[in-house]
Amino acid sequence: MTVMKEINGKKPVYGRGCWFSETSVLIGEVIMGHNCTVWYNAIVRGDVNYIKIGNNTNIQDGAVIHCTYQKAGTDIGSNVSIGHNAIVHGCTIEDNVLVGMGAIVMDKAVVKSGSIIGAGAIVLQNQVIEPNSIYVGNPAKKVKTIGEEGVALIERTANNYIKYAGWFR
Question: Which helix or strand (DSSP H or E) is residue 156 part of?
Answer without folding.
Answer: helix 148-168
